[in-house]
Amino acid sequence: MPIVKLGTTNYQPDAASYENKNCRLFDALSLTRLLCLIPPRTSLSLPPGIFTRPPFNQPARVYDYKSERKCDRHVNVFKDCIRSVQDVSPCGFAALKVTALGNPALLERMSDTIDEVKRLFGKFDERGEGVVGRDEFVRCYEHYFHADEERLAEILRTLDPQGTGAVDYIAFADTLTPCALPAFTLKCRDAGPLALATPSADEVALMKRAAQRLRALASEARDRSTKLLVDAEHGKFQPAIDALVLELQREFNDVERTERPVVFNTYQCYLKDAPERIATDLRRSERFGFHFAAKLVRGAYMVHERERAKRLNRPSPIHDTVCDTHCCYDDAVDLLLRRRARRRNGKNDPRTEVVIATHNEASVARVVRVMHGRAGPRPRRRRRPLRPI
Question: What is the CA radius of gyration of the chain?
């Protein structure tokens, strides 16, 4: 059964408006058996230790050996948490923050890289259809990169192994990962945004170390029959976190290795892009054959995200109204619970598991109705449709 998590949160004052002020708070222990023990974040105020030398004459970036040692120590703290969950509540949950396992400055850098790859796909996908035809891809690739016929044919075989004649965003992002990107940007015709966002060899090595720490924790959770909830964090870190979680899910939620998922990602439904991210990750789970596992929250960083967007002169990533956020949350719950109910129950069919993490009374009541098949349509409200990118 889906897990319903109810209780207090550490919302900032403005974010509290996203929750029903008259809601009743319930004791969630019997429902979730959730243990969240978060070690302190990595310090960024330590002496420099690693100096990277990125391509294209970018300014050097500094990552600290002491921060790395702290991250290694945090792995042991998290392992103790996972063992404590097993001792207190077999088959329970442990939560973690990725910023405790990798330098936050590095996570922000990797997020910028992932965002630039997404923007590059948008340039290829001029009609905004989410799919690029073979001829269109070749034309755009030759516009941005130097490539001989043999190299281009190899890239197309990787992006379109079934020979469908089309490339979609999932295949594109799966190929142009931060670790693989340097091999592509070496062929850039100009030092544009993607080339400037390309990680250096040192940064790639550090990112792999962060991934190894996460993998060690996922392995511990699997061996202890504990589920790992990866928390959402500030938007400037989230693309990197999502990429790391996806890598874990493809291994530890693989339908051929386990009947139930081990690793859960968190989706903040006060974000305007939450529907697209959920829909795209559902498609990823089907394509790559892993169980989709999610924790749904409204979100806890509204003030920070709006202030950062204003400072950078960007549109706010937060929904404009509380009504839009409620709609987004309820739509996501409906989609995932109904998808769970429609599972074909084949041995290798991906499962859908979801933690409904809210203390909003109306949302909880609707979840119960959906679970019992009694949920009628909600009143029509303006909302963003759930569609893949």
Answer: 21
| Separation CA 272–CA 286 (nearest Å) | 24
Is 46's pLDDT higher than 90?
no
354/347 Cα distance (integer angstroms): 20
Indicate the pLDDT class of residue 301, thresholds 50, 70 and 90.
Answer: very high
Alpha carbon 158 to its chain's center: 23
Q: For residue 100, what is the DSSP state?
A: G
Write out the H or E segment, with its range, that includes residue 94. Answer: strand 93-96
CB–CB of 45/31 below 8 Å?
no
| Beta-carbon contacts of residue 7 (< 8 Å; ≥ 6 apart) | 25, 26, 27, 28, 359
Confidence (pLDDT) at 178: 95
Reading the block at residue 186, the tokens are: 């070496």
Its pTM stands at 0.80
Determine the average pLDDT of the residues in 257-282. 96
C-beta of residue 91 within 8 angstroms of C-beta of residue 233: no
Structure tokens at 345: 């129950």
pLDDT in tens, 200-233: 999 999 999 999 999 999 999 999 999 999 999 9
User: Taking the CB of residue 309, how many other CB atoms lie within 10 A of it?
Assistant: 15
The one-letter code for the residue type at 182 is: P
Contact criterion met (CB below 8 Å) for 206 and 50: yes
Running DSSP on this structure, what letter comes out for residue 18? G
Which amino acid type is present at position 285? S
